[in-house]
Structure formats: structure tokens, C-alpha cells
Amino acid sequence: MIEVLSSGALNLVQDLGRQNCMHMGVSASGAMDAPALRLANWLIGNDAGAAGLELSVFPFRMRFEGDISFCCTGAHCRITLDDQPIPNWTKCQARAGQRLVIESPLLGVRAYLAFEGGIDVPEILGSRSTDLKGGFGGHEGRGVKRGDHLNVSSTTPHIGKCVPVIAPYDRLRLKKELANGCVSVRVLPAAEFGQFTEAAIAAFYSTPYEVTPQANRVGYRLKGTPLHTCQRLELRSHGIAPGTVQVPPAGQPIVQLAEANTCGGYPKIATVIESDLWRLAQTPVGCAIQFIPVTSNDGATAIRDHWDALGLVQCRLASRFQA
Fold first, then answer.
1. InterPro entries from the entry (predicted)?
2. Which of 37, 42, 65, 295 has the fewest beta carbons closer than 10 A?
3. How many CA atoms does the CB half-sphere of 317 hold within 13 Å?
4. Which residues contact 186 (CB under 8 A, 6 or more apart)?
């Protein structure tokens, strides 16, 4: 069990989300940076989908009420255990009574804290993720707060060397982009792409769009060159999903994310490919986004490369635990 000493309303219990529920009007939810949670779980010997904490309000402070292994990935943060610095992306061991503090990120937005065995909360619709809009899942359907006690599933400790994982190349590339203030994401044309003016399409691909303070787990509202359709479109509400880039009448795009609305009537200009969604999760307010057009074949190759890179890390970690 762990005790939360200080937190924020947007620090949430999340796993990899609810699959195949959007047709019922239920968002996928789950970790915004799903690869970071996967890697945190693999580093400590959990299944990829074990529930952990998604942290986006800092500092986060907690106390361990038993001996346990844990790992923090995602955004690059300063982390201390009983005031002693410990590394990110590394399996660490805590003893009962020790206090963990995770400070505001130096780069990135969201950190992921995984515990050996995973956080033990009820499954709802096949997931332990928090759905803030619906007020269910996770820990009582809300963010964790001071005084909360979270149970961790029992597990057999893994014995082995506690060494850091080598972050995939795309993580290192993102750090450079964050430092430069502009993050690139790859997109495919969406259903109403052909209804936008040539000037709008050229602007969408050639000029950066800034993340505004209206950014949360539902989506990011962006600011930049207005995007207009050739004529006003009256669309019926239709299905949308994480990654959909919608354009309201004012012309400023909105990117749907983990708790994306399941339907909407704004025209869609593009869709962020699945393997780049985590990059948006680590893009802070005020940072720019550059949309990069790709073909469907390029997108499929990018997704295969993404999963191959994760699979390579998983295999290396699995061999270490078996050693």
C-alpha cells in the first residue's frame, strides 16, 4: 500500500485504456503517453497493462507503507527517495516508511509511476483507468489527493540487476524538439480534408500551431493560422477518436486525445498517427506543434517501427528478469 501525501486533481490511476467501448459513448481513457507506462511496467516485471499513476501536477509526494519496487518514466523529472536523488527510467527499491517526491518536469509534461504488481482498483468495462468525464474508474473516479491510500496487487518480487532501460531513439529525438520549442507529429488526411482551401492545407503543413492553455486529456486547442473550408459545412455529429484533428468555425484546430469525445460535428482535416500520440502527451502549453504529412503506407511503417522498438526493449528486459 502507498499513502498520498500531496497531489493534484489531475494525477490519475491509469492503465492502457478501455478497448472497444467508444461505440457506447465511453472514451478510451488510459495513459496519454501509453509507451511510457508500458516501459515503466516492463522495467519492474509487470504486464504492460498494469495500472499505475499518471502525474501531471507537481510536486507529487507519497509514502511507501511496505517494501516494493517501482519505476518512474515519461517526462524527465527530479526524483528523490528520502531526499536522495534517484534516476528516471530505472527500477528502484523502496522500503516501508520511505518518502518519494517527484518534482516538476524539466522536459515533458506527464510522468508515469508504476509499482510492482500494479495498483489494485476495480476493473470497469475491462480497464482500471480513470474516466474523469464519466466520474468512474481508477480511484473513486477522480484524481488522487492527500490522505488517499492505494493498494498494490500482491506479487512475487523479481530478483535481478536494477539498471536503467535505454530509451528508444524517438524519446531522445523528442527531448531535442522540446528543448527547441517545436514538436513534430505525423498526420494522415481525414474525411473532410478535401473540403479545406488550398491556403488552409498549405498553412496546416507549413506553419506551427501553439498549444494553448485549453489543453487537457480530452484534447488540445491550438493557435495559429486559421484554417477554413471552401464553403461552410453543415455536418451531422459523427464518430471521432484520439488523434482526430477537428476545425471549428473560427479555424483554430483541436486535436482529440485520450479522453476524446466519441462524436462531434466539426470538419476533420487530419488524424495524428497512433505511434505519435504520445508525443502530444509530452508537449506543454506554449510549445509549438508541426504537422508532417505522411501517406498511409508511411504511417503503417511508422507504427510497425514503433512496436518493433518497444518489442526490442521488452525482450531485453524479459531476458534480464530470467537471468
1. CT_A_B, Cyclophilin-like_dom_sf, PxpC
2. 295
3. 27
4. 272, 273, 276, 291, 292, 293, 294, 298, 299, 302
The residue among 79, 116, 117, 114 whose CA lies nearest residue 99 is 79
DSSP label at 158? P
**Segment holding 309, helix H or strand E:** helix 296-322
Q: Which of 194, 207, 186 minimizes the C-alpha distance to 274?
A: 186
Q: Is the pTM of this model over 0.85?
A: yes
Domain with residues 174-303, CATH architecture: Beta Barrel (2.40)
Q: Where are the domains of the chain?
A: 2-167, 174-303
Contacts with 308 (C-beta within 8 Å, 6 or more apart), sequence order: none
CB 217 within 8 A of CB 9: no
Burial class (CB in 10 A: 0-12, 13-18, 19+), 16: buried
Residue type, 60: F
Please classify residue 319 by burial: count the beta carbons closer than 10 Å to its beta carbon, then call 0-12 exposed, 13-18 middle and 19+ buried. Answer: exposed
Question: pLDDT 10s per residue in the chain (323 long)?
Answer: 899 999 888 999 999 999 888 888 888 999 999 999 999 999 999 999 999 999 999 999 999 999 999 999 999 999 999 999 999 999 999 999 999 999 999 999 999 999 999 999 999 999 999 999 889 999 999 999 999 999 998 655 554 445 555 555 678 889 899 999 999 999 999 999 999 999 999 999 999 999 999 999 999 999 999 999 998 887 888 889 999 999 999 999 999 999 998 888 899 999 999 999 999 999 999 999 999 999 999 999 999 998 888 888 888 777 766 55
Contact status, residue 227 vs residue 255, Cβ threshold 8 Å:
no
In whole angstroms, give the CA distance from residue 218 to residue 236.
21
Q: How many helices (H) and strands (E) does the chain have?
A: 5, 20
Identify whether the C-beta of residue 83 lies closer than 8 Å to the C-beta of residue 43.
no
